[in-house]
Amino acid sequence: MADTKDRNPVHQCNKPYSISGDLGAVPPEGEQNPYVNALAQFDKTVEHLNLKSGVVDTLRYPKRELSVTFPVELANGDIRIFRGYRVHHSTVLGPTKGGIRYSPNVTLDEIRALAMLMSWKCALMNLPYGGAKGGVVVDPKALSRRELERLTRRYATEISLMLGPESDIPAPDMGTDSQVMAWIMDTYSMHKGYSVPAVTTGKPVEIGGSLGRTEATGRGVVNTIEQALKRMGMVPQRVSVAVQGFGNVGAVAASCCRELGMKVLAVSDSTGGILKEDGLDLDSLKIHKKESGQVSGFPGAENITNDELLTLKCDVLVVAAMENQITSRNADKIRATIIAEGANGPTTPEADEILNDRKVMTIPDILCNAGGVTVSYLEWVQDLQSFYWPLEQINLHLKNLITAAFNNVMACGESHRVPNRVAAQMLAIQRISDAIMIRGIYP
Ligand code: GLU
């Protein structure tokens, strides 16, 4: 087990109390603050819609936010305090849906922004959900498996008043996986006294997970790339791809691009990237990554930095790592024709302006990476009816749903002459606004 002492936030009694700085990172300022960016994007979108101002104000703020601090007993007997959050942005269209992330950089502003994006994503995909997000300030790699399980079960208990198959359904996000979802599902079920598989999605198949859920985000990313190529008259066999992020989303997206005949010439992870002009052998690369823990040093490929990967000459750039990767600093240097946003919020509003001026085609995050929540929805439906579908059916539903959303976004963008991100958010926000007006304001 790694030494957790230095890597995880410790409560320090001699420090003055501050909401975000004490047990976690202080939210970044300006262009680096995800909530500031999400609001800037929202304001830009609603300019194109004719919404009641009270509805606009309602959607600017999360409906409810829970901040929890809780103790976890570590393997050496020490007790450490952790901070976690769960935010529900909107409950208008149905129960809230959204991932839980474990990262030392989690802040409440980040979780608020991601919850808002989940509302737009679910509405755009026509899923009967509102948006939510959760997070714990922790480096999961610094904990043993048993410590991670204890942290997860305690966090799930702390936020359990927010959870339920009819109120709020978490899923994996950065730093969490199907095992974490299994522990949350089990904890919730133990408190209820019976099994409630539909309380989380992205679970292992053995306990009610859906076939194809693990690959769904990466697969959906490539479904949207395929549609974008079609529109631009490009044939996959002549397309080169660079992928930032070689985790669950990036690695699957790279393989799916390859299956369609595209050449994956570069990939990167948090430690750096690699480039091979005539295409990487992804099967050997996966073995190399498993053995060495990183993509760098892959035999026959040149080592490059993450910054270099982003500005490589290629047809499609898949950004599947994290927020704020394409900023005002590097947007004018991007040389890809299409940017596919596998991550949430990878492009800042400042960078967006630059890319739009340069006519780079962006497949925005709430469309591009919506495959994950779409198959989460299919998993939830299967759990609720206790009837499970074959993989072919899941992948076909995913492809049909994401292609329909893609076409809607393109049509909206063309008819209103707005960039794809604005078009996607216009469709989403209009749907939620319509639902608010039809339901009426209580009481
Ligand atoms: N965390 C994923 C996302 O950002 C999946 C959310 C879900 O399946 O609920 O879309």
Question: What would you say this structure looks like, in words?
Answer:
The chain is 43% helix and 16% strand. With 443 residues, it is of the alpha/beta class. The strands form two sheets. It has a seven-stranded mixed beta sheet. The chain contains 14 helices and twelve strands. Helix 6 packs across helix 7 and helix 6 crosses helix 13. It has two domains: 193 residues, Leucine Dehydrogenase, chain A, domain 1 (Rossmann fold); 155 residues, Rossmann fold, CATH 3.40.50.720. The site of glutamic acid has 11 residues, from strand 3 and helix 12.
CATH topology annotation of the largest domain:
Rossmann fold
* Count of the separate structural domains: 2
Give the strand order, joined by hyphens, for the main sheet: 9-8-7-6-10-11-12
What is bound: which ligands? glutamic acid
Number of strands: 12
* CATH homologous superfamily (4th level) name of the largest domain: Leucine Dehydrogenase, chain A, domain 1
Low-confidence parts lasting 5 or more residues at pLDDT below 50? 1-6, 8-21
What order do the SSEs take from the amino end to the carboxyl end, as H and E? Answer: HHEEEHEHEHHEHEEHEHEEHEHHHH
**Per DSSP, what share of the residues sits in E-state strands of 2 or more residues?**
15-25%
Write the layout of secondary structure elements.
Blueprint lengths: L33 H13 L6 H8 L3 E10 L5 E10 L7 E8 L4 H17 L5 E8 L7 H14 L9 E5 L5 H15 L20 H20 L7 E5 L3 H12 L3 E7 L2 E4 L6 H11 L9 E3 L1 H5 L5 E4 L18 E4 L7 H9 L3 E3 L1 H4 L2 H15 L5 H26 L3 H20 L4
Parallel strand pairs: 3-4, 3-5, 6-7, 6-10, 10-11, 11-12
Antiparallel strand pairs: 1-2, 2-4, 7-8, 8-9
The structure holds glutamic acid.
